[in-house]
Design brief:
Layout: H1 2-38, H2 56-60, H3 70-110, H4 121-127, H5 135-142, H6 147-150, H7 152-161, H8 170-190, H9 193-223, H10 232-237, H11 240-277, H12 289-318
Helix pairs in contact: 1-3, 1-8, 3-5, 3-7, 3-9, 3-11, 5-7, 7-8, 8-11, 9-11
């Protein structure tokens, strides 16, 4: 099972890397759509008069996006971040639905299992070893497509109940569950690193772009081709890249923080689901329990047979 958990961790790392590549790919159409939306306030590539500074259209316009090399790069990175938030939201919805399905399967197959041992439980366990824990039924539910490809709950259930030696004990499943918990929490948390790095880089890129646009505005003023008064709006507009990237970075930080906490809440509920519905109901607490019970049962049967023979021998002597 050590190999299975390592393979699971490797596959999850590959999954999150593929998710990041998907965000980079989806960022192209999203950035084009964003540029079309926020570039509507520009007319013929010029800026509006000073009265427009009081309106929201001016501050939402992106006249810097088509200037220099950094303009398209900044718009593309914003598109990547938007795509990442949307896809992470969809991923979280898929995880919640998958967990709901797994909870239904655990309730259906494990709901009849007692939480604590009852008198006569060992006899029932020996007579019905396959019914002690419906491993095959749970494994079939965990392998259902397409949930087994995307749902963390289905993947974790498959690893918990898979054991080539038969029915897994609660100790074995507890060790696996602890390992899987650590893997999921670590990978889901670290998957935000690339997003946060891009978000932190936006204000720096916006500052460089604003400096470049301000330089372009300052050139005709210094050459005397334009006076400062007539080009004041263009000078103020050179700060739009910095203002907008700072605002976008703050918005993305809030969005990622909110989603990250929702994901942490989901993972905590997922951990509690397996502890309450599966591990607490597992009839075998140790891998050798069933062997010990079988040995004790045979030993007691031998003792009973010997006692019967002794009793019969005593009855014959008396008669």
């Amino acid at each position: 099972m050590e190999y299975g958990i390592r393979r699971y961790e490797s596959s999850q790392r590959l999954w999150w890397f593929s998710f990041f590549l998907l965000c980079l790919l989806v960022g192209f159409p999203v950035s084009g759509r964003l540029q079309a939306w926020f570039g509507r306030s520009l007319v013929d590539g010029t800026l509006k008069p000073k009265e427009a500074l009081r309106g929201a259209d001016f501050w939402l316009s992106t006249p810097w996006a088509s200037q220099g090399l950094l303009g398209p790069v900044i718009v593309y990175l914003v598109g990547v971040l938007v795509a990442c938030l949307v896809l992470r939201t969809l991923w979280l919805v898929v995880q919640i639905v998958g967990t709901f399905l797994v909870a239904g399967s655990l309730k259906r197959y494990c709901g009849a299992l007692p939480r604590v041992s009852k008198p006569g439980g060992s006899e029932w366990l020996l007579e019905n070893p396959t019914k002690a824990l419906p491993v095959e039924s749970l494994a079939r539910e965990a392998c259902r497509l397409p949930w087994s490809l995307f749902s963390l709950a289905h993947k974790r259930l498959r690893l918990l109940v898979s054991d080539g030696r038969g029915i897994p004990s609660s100790d074995e499943m507890l060790q696996r569950e602890q390992r899987l918990e650590g893997v999921d929490w670590q990978l889901v948390g670290s998957s935000w690193d690339a997003f946060r790095s891009i978000g932190r880089a936006l204000p720096l890129l916006g500052f460089v772009q604003s400096a470049w646009v301000f330089y372009l505005w300052l050139q005709p003023v210094m050459d005397g081709a334009q006076d400062v008064g007539s080009a004041a709006v263009a000078g103020i507009a050179s700060l739009l890249a910095l203002v907008q990237t700072v605002g976008a970075a703050l918005a993305f930080a809030l969005g990622s923080g909110f989603l990250s906490r929702l994901e942490n809440l989901y993972l905590s509920r997922l951990d509690g689901l397996f502890y309450d519905q599966l591990l607490a109901r597992a009839p075998l607490h140790n891998a050798d329990t069933l062997l010990i019970l079988k040995s004790l049962s045979r030993h007691f049967q031998d003792i009973q047979e010997r006692l019967k023979r002794l009793e019969q021998a005593l009855l014959r002597e008396r008669s």
